[in-house]
Amino acid sequence: MEIKLLFLILVLLFPINSNAFTIYSFVPFRYHVDKSGKKIDGYSQAQQALYRVGTKQIKVLYENQFLTNKKPDFEKIKKIVEDSKKNPSIPISFDIEIGNDRKPETILPTVIDTLRLYHSLGGAAEVG
Length: 128
What we know:
Order of helices and strands: HEEEHEEEEHEH
Distance between the termini: 48 Å
Number of helices: 4
Number of strands: 8
Helix content: 25-40%
Strand content: 15-25%
Largest sheet: 2 strands, parallel
Radius of gyration: 21 Å
Strand order of the largest sheet: 1-4
Oligomer: single chain
Structural class: alpha/beta
């Protein structure tokens, strides 16, 4: 009984607030409309709410930001690398949706080429 009481006191005194992994968030919409029909800057409000509960920032890059004709674009990726050096603590996610998701051979060459180019140019941020 004493051990249970001691355990309960310890649990109440020391909040258990830890994660086994880091959670990243990205809000793609720029605004939302409230109940009265007023346009609200949804990106910053939603993203800030997620940061307050402990999520971390991630930079999601869409294909048009790093591919040209479905191939990695040297100049675009070079710019991404330069930006990554300004904020190396913010991971980057290359959102590649080309090919057939049931046939990795249609996607992997582009993924591998994109990552190799990013790293060979000295990308500073982690990729996730």
